[in-house]
Amino acid sequence: MHELAITQDIVDTVCDHAAGRQVCHVTVEIGELTAVVPEAVRFCFGPATVGTVAQDASLELVGVPGVARCRVCGAEFAVADPVLLCVCGSVDADLLSGREIRIRSMEVSRECARPADAATIQPA
């Protein structure tokens, strides 16, 4: 299940960019032509955030449809599988979207989260 590794990378990136603030919400775009199962990412997200500043954050997954542009006629068309076949019959096309996995946004608290081990840290 490669979704676990992908989800862990998402959580690591979000936590790095949170700069110590509590993460409340994360929105991730997943292209429909990737081999990633969105529900598997959702399933892995909670366990991957345990003990991090993203623990208890909500996750929103947004599907990105496959779209290509024909190099012959210039038409943009929907792509449901890896075969880029334009309505004009050409297979000479550029994939514009559908293969991305992107963190679109994240919401964080204003205050830095208190470290989990704050109770055991002695003042200097």
Walk me through what this model shows.
The structure is a single chain. The protein is an alpha+beta fold. It has two helices and six strands; from the N terminus they run H-E-H-E-E-E-E-E. Strand 1, helix 2 and strand 2 form a beta-alpha-beta unit. Helix 1 (2-18) crosses helix 2 (38-49). It is elongated, with a radius of gyration of 20 Å. Keywords: Metal-binding, Nickel, Zinc. It comes from Nocardia speluncae. Involved in the maturation of [NiFe] hydrogenases. Required for nickel insertion into the metal center of the hydrogenase.
What is the topological layout?
Elements (H helix, E strand, L loop, with lengths): L1 H17 L2 E11 L6 H12 L8 E7 L1 E5 L5 E4 L13 E5 L3 E12 L12
Parallel strand pairs: 1-2
Antiparallel strand pairs: 1-6, 3-4, 3-5
Brief summary of the model shown:
By secondary structure, the chain is an alpha+beta fold. The chain has two helices and six strands. The strands form two sheets. The chain has a three-stranded mixed sheet with strand order 2-1-6. The chain has a three-stranded antiparallel sheet with strand order 4-3-5, with no helix packed on it.
Major beta sheet, specifics? 3 strands, mixed
* Second-tier CATH architecture of the domain at 2-65 and 98-110: 2-Layer Sandwich
**Average of the residue pLDDT scores:** 90
Portion of residues within helices? 10-25%
Number of strands: 6
Bulk shape: elongated
Pfam family, one: HypA
Function: Involved in the maturation of [NiFe] hydrogenases. Required for nickel insertion into the metal center of the hydrogenase.
Binding site for Ni(2+): 2
Binding site for Zn(2+): 70, 73, 86, 88
